[in-house]
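User: quick one, sequence for these tokens?
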């Protein structure tokens, strides 16, 4: 999976697109043959995100102006992602129970399945939308964590840890345990989201908008009036460099997951073959 051919495919123009022949990669884990453990995982993460978001805002309060902050937007879309992911897993689980396959088709994530399925594009539109959302949420989420602690950190309280550290832990765990594909060229999606946010901050500043403390900026590093060179550099660097690098980091984690999962499957298959041979020879 992580061969030279695998990386060459990442730089083809069609890799900008959303063609993927195995829909169940979006609702299953490469680590389990049964969908139940991953369904439970998705449910727990979804409940965690919803409960922590609601609890944090009930304790610290929330106002409409909080929506101007990328941190707030990032946590909202991360929470929404966990809800959508859980719903898709439930739909897949109960759909597969209503339309069971024959015993010959029960095995999930075999090499033959992957090779055959990926030869065609059978991905429904809602999975494609989820795929774009996934790239945006995770790329922006990792960027928020790095940018906050590198440029803005002035508070190490529980709220900052929750919104700027644990959010990243959730992202890393999800990439590690899910089978959701990551493509290198899909960095365009989180970068497009960042571009839209930068445009919003400029419009907000021009319109005379202020932060929650009535300062004429949203973030001090985006003070277009007081330090336009720094603000422009931060904005451009985030869109063109930082966020693509965050996506590349997640891509590397996904490739490592694929390599390790493939290695485990091959070892398991080898052990199964050896056990079958022992049984055939009356040694087990």
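Assistant:
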């Amino acid at each position: 999976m992580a061969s030279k051919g695998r990386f060459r495919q990442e730089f083809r123009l069609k890799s900008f697109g959303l063609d993927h022949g195995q829909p169940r990669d979006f609702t299953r884990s490469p680590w389990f043959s049964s969908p139940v453990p991953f369904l439970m995982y998705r449910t727990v993460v979804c409940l965690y995100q919803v409960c922590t978001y609601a609890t944090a805002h009930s304790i610290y309060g929330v106002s409409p102006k909080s929506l101007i902050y990328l941190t707030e937007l990032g946590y909202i879309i991360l929470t929404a992602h966990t809800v959508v992911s859980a719903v898709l897993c439930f739909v897949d689980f109960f759909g597969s129970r209503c339309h069971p396959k024959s015993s010959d088709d029960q095995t999930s994530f075999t090499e033959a399945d992957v090779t055959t399925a990926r030869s065609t594009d059978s991905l429904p539109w809602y999975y494609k939308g989820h795929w774009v959302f996934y790239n945006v949420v995770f790329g922006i989420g990792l960027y928020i964590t790095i940018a906050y602690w590198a440029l803005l950190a002035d508070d190490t309280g529980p709220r900052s840890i929750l919104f700027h550290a644990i959010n990243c832990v959730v992202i890393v765990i999800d990439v590690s345990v899910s089978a959701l594909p990551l493509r290198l060229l899909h960095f365009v999606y989180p970068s497009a989201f960042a571009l839209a946010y930068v445009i919003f901050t400029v419009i907000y500043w021009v319109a005379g908008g202020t932060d929650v403390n009535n300062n004429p900026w949203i973030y001090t590093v985006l003070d277009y009036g007081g330090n336009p060179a720094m603000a422009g550099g931060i904005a451009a660097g985030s869109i063109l460099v930082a966020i693509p690098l965050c996506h590349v980091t997640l891509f590397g984690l996904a490739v490592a997951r694929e390599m390790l999962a493939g290695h485990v499957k091959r070892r398991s298959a080898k052990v199964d073959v050896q056990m079958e041979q022992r049984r055939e020879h009356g040694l087990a």
